[in-house]
Design goal:
With 302 residues, the protein is an alpha/beta fold. It folds into three domains: 18-173, 3-Layer(aba) Sandwich (Rossmann fold), CATH 3.40.50.720; 176-224, no CATH class; 234-301, no CATH class. The protein is built from twelve helices and nine strands. A six-stranded mixed β-sheet has the order 3-2-1-4-5-6, sandwiched between helices. Helix 4 (51-63) runs parallel beside helix 5 (96-107). It is globular and about 60 Å long.
Length: 302
């Protein structure tokens, strides 16, 4: 019997209470009250309660959100016993999100926990609009691409992650992200001129400055993140990127990329020859030498 959770995250904006300020005291000291208040009013969707998903859920709960929606249409399996610490061992065969609810709630009773047992592909665009952050764990390539397009449409931040044995990946699309950087400066007392320190502190200029003349300026930076589609479909053979591919692409990139490609084949996704061919195609697409790769096609047969 299919279970569907109809509960919705609350949408009202609230300030941190005295009890919450006491509970989150250490992290407020780390990133400030304003940041904690933004967390306090954030609703997050987490899709995929695998072992990695359980770890992400734990960290989100302890951070102090407003609400966390656990979404998974799969059931707890024998394979979850060694990694999925939110689902008790006696819940094998039960829905994985529902089985994880109690232990998730116990991590932080101040956070609203919502369970949704639908499949990700059944959700239309409007479903995601109420969230501030969407996290996808071990989801299919096409679904990550679809949800990322939806999130960009509604200006929602998104993360994706996957674990395949000893290999794993993490992807973040924070859209346009602003952050503040502290820069040390020197302002001579007899001049309006300001000098930015080079960080070495061993030149004659630095030795002449007084300690009380040192100032700290707050510089704002903006980073534009790439979409999932752009990040996963870089033309590494293009002039200017081939050299970067040889210098910076880890061998694990091709393994992850081949596993994501193999997922598109459904039941055949775990066949060694399928994964090996996907790996070979990806290396060749990047115009790299197969013989120079640490991972070899025969490694997928082991």
């Amino acid at each position: 019997m299919k279970m569907v959770q109809t509960e919705e995250p609350t949408t009202t904006t609230e300030s941190i209470t005295e009890d919450e300020a006491a509970l989150y005291d250490r992290q407020i000291r780390l990133w400030g009250l304003e940041a904690q208040n933004r967390l306090r009013n954030s609703s997050v969707l987490l899709v995929g309660l695998s072992g990695a998903g359980a770890e992400i859920a734990k960290n989100l709960m302890l951070a102090g959100l407003k609400s966390l929606t656990l979404m998974d249409h799969n059931n707890v399996s024998e394979g979850d016993r060694d990694a999925q610490f939110l689902a008790p061992v006696d819940t094998i065969g039960q829905n994985r999100a529902e089985a994880s609810r109690l232990r998730t709630e116990q991590l932080n009773p101040m956070v609203q926990v919502i369970v949704d047992t639908d499949a990700l592909e059944s959700k239309d665009a409007d479903f995601f609009e109420k969230f501030n952050l969407v996290c996808l764990v071990n989801q299919a390539y096409e679904q990550i691409e679809r949800v990322n397009e939806i999130c960009r449409k509604f200006n929602i931040k998104m993360c994706a992650a996957g674990v395949y044995g000893w290999f794993g990946y993490g992807f973040s699309d924070l859209l346009e992200h602003e952050f503040i950087d502290e820069v040390k400066m020197l302002a001579p007392s007899n001049s309006n001129e300001v000098h930015v320190l080079d960080g070495k502190g061993d030149g004659p200029e630095a030795k002449k400055r007084k300690v009380d003349e040192e100032e700290t300026a707050m510089i704002k930076h903006t980073i534009d993140f790439s979409s999932w589609s752009d990040a996963m479909n870089v033309d590494w053979s293009r002039k200017g990127t081939l050299g970067k591919a040889k210098r910076s692409l880890t061998p694990a990139y091709f393994v992850i990329r081949s596993l994501l490609e193999a997922q598109k084949l459904g039941d055949n996704a775990t066949l060694p020859e399928v994964i090996g061919k996907a790996w070979k195609d990806e290396v060749e697409r990047c115009k790299l030498d197969l013989e120079e790769q640490k991972c070899k096609p025969e490694d997928f047969m082991k």
